């Protein structure tokens, strides 16, 4: 069974780029265009990983990750921030909110692969109990 990654970003171009990158790597993807939908999808689909923009409508990424980390059903899902916010103060707020990792915009394919592999081990179709 493929590992699933939820992509939460209000920019359709970023969602499409991330979807293309991750599907080419063998992952299944889900997309959400705002934080409220991302929370609902994370609770129902239980993805292996979430890539989440910080600045989104309805519920921003900081509030969404706080809600996910406060919920027993979703707190263990790693969440990687994807944002153009790059100041030291921004990074501190992102980590304090509960994000497990960080990717900056513009998106680098190499950095996306590396960060996803850091959390998922780079074996999208490997299941527990199997070896490479």
Structure description:
With 132 residues, the chain is of the alpha/beta class. It has one domain: Response regulator (Rossmann fold), CATH 3.40.50.2300. It is built from five helices and five strands; from the N terminus they run βαβαβαβαβα. The protein has helices at 12-24, 35-45, 61-70, 88-97, 109-120, and strands at residues 4-8, 28-32, 49-53, 79-83, 101-104. The protein has a five-stranded parallel β-sheet, sandwiched between helices.
Shape, please? globular
Instruction: Figure out the total of helices.
Output: 5
Instruction: Report the mean per-residue pLDDT as an integer.
Output: 89
CATH H-level superfamily = Response regulator
Radius of gyration: 14 Å
- Total strand count, please? 5
Q: How many distinct domains?
A: 1
Q: Tell me the CATH architecture.
A: 3-Layer(aba) Sandwich
Largest sheet: 5 strands, parallel
């Amino acid at each position: 069974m493929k590992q699933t990654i939820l992509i939460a970003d209000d920019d359709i171009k970023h969602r499409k780029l991330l979807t293309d990158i991750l599907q080419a790597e063998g992952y299944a993807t889900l997309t959400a265009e705002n934080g409220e939908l991302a929370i609902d999808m994370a609770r129902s689909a239980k993805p292996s990983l979430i890539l989440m923009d910080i600045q989104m409508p309805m519920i921003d990424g900081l509030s969404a990750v706080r809600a996910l980390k406060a919920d027993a059903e979703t707190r263990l899902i790693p969440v990687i921030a994807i944002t153009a916010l790059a100041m030291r103060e921004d990074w501190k707020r992102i980590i304090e909110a509960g994000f497990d990792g960080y990717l900056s915009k513009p998106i680098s394919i190499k950095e996306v692969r590396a960060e996803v592999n850091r959390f998922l081990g780079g074996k999208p179709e490997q299941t527990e109990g199997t070896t490479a």
